């Protein structure tokens, strides 16, 4: 297969200088990506060319699956727009943070006598919204942010910058299934409160003093129905204006403020 004879050591991989992404975040070429995965590097996602198949590509896909790295199949045109270099049908976006273990976060909270407050983001895809939410969450004392492995904003330098550096301090946990994560949080003793305009109860009518996980949803369609069904409570932000929705980062800030207010912060 053309291009498979090209070799590159992990420490010598090429970066696309003209890419809109920070050059330290973009890695291309099948072998360098495999080596990054096997080395335990934090990877945001991998884009691979649709319908491309080879032993080396299969090795990459198997490594990604084994290490739970999100992979997305895309047309070659998309890869070519990202870089003009010899990508061999694979481009990798390195994460700007180190992901945390949710299990460890919860355990640490209980062991230290801290009442955990976790923020779950259901498919927040805008990098600046994510950064703004992370900044507010860190200021409000949230113990961890949970995001899905797929369908979430890329945590790159723009996200870190928008968060005013908060992403360097607040743990971010990437989970394969938010439904399973919600179940785990409930089994761990946390109540799950979903913030959605579909609720009758307002954010001030819920209790946040006990261990709690707060869920906010995507910019387009809010929290998924599956997660709403799993929540212990659903609440809304009271509004009297003509516009029926808030920016998700603003909504997250409002419900987090109410939680901190009740906790005596």
UniProtKB/TrEMBL annotation:
Residues 26-100 form the RNA 2-O ribose methyltransferase substrate binding domain. SMART domains: SpoU_sub_bind (SM00967). One of its GO terms (cellular component) is cytosol. One of its GO terms (molecular function) is RNA binding. The keyword Electron transport does not apply. InterPro entries: Alpha/beta_knot_MTases, Ribosomal_eL30-like_sf, rRNA_MeTrfase_TrmH, SpoU_MeTrfase, SpoU_subst-bd, tRNA_m1G_MTases_N. Keywords: Methyltransferase, Transferase. The keyword Methyltransferase applies. Pfam families: SpoU_methylase, SpoU_sub_bind. CDD domains: SpoU-like_RlmB. GO terms for biological process: methylation; RNA processing. PANTHER family: 23S RRNA (GUANOSINE-2'-O-)-METHYLTRANSFERASE RLMB (PTHR46429:SF1). This is RNA methyltransferase.
């Amino acid at each position: 297969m053309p291009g498979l004879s090209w070799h590159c050591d992990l420490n010598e991989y090429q970066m696309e200088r003209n890419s809109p992404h920070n050059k330290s975040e973009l890695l291309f070429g099948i072998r360098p990506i495999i080596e990054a995965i096997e080395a335990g590097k934090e990877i945001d996602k991998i884009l691979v060319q649709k319908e491309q198949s080879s032993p080396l590509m299969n090795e990459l896909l198997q490594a990604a699956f084994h290490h739970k790295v999100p992979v997305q199949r895309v047309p070659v045109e998309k890869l070519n727009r990202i870089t003009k270099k010899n990508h061999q049908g694979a481009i990798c976006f390195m994460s700007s943070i180190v992901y945390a273990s949710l299990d460890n976060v919860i355990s640490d909270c209980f062991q230290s006598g801290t009442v955990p407050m976790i923020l779950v983001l259901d498919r927040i895809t805008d990098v600046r919204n994510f950064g703004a939410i992370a900044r507010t969450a860190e200021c409000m004392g949230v113990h961890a942010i949970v995001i899905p492995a797929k369908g979430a904003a890329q945590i790159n330098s723009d996200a870190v910058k928008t968060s005013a550096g908060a992403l360097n301090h607040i743990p971010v946990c990437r989970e394969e299934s938010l439904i399973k994560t919600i179940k785990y949080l409930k089994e761990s003793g946390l109540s799950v409160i979903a913030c959605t305009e579909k609720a009758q109860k307002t954010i001030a009518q819920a209790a946040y003093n006990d261990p709690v996980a707060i869920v906010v949803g995507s910019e387009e369609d809010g929290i998924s129905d599956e997660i709403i069904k799993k929540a212990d409570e659903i609440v809304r932000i009271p509004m009297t204006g003509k516009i029926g929705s808030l920016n998700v980062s603003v909504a997250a800030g409002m419900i987090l403020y109410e939680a901190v207010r009740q906790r005596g912060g």
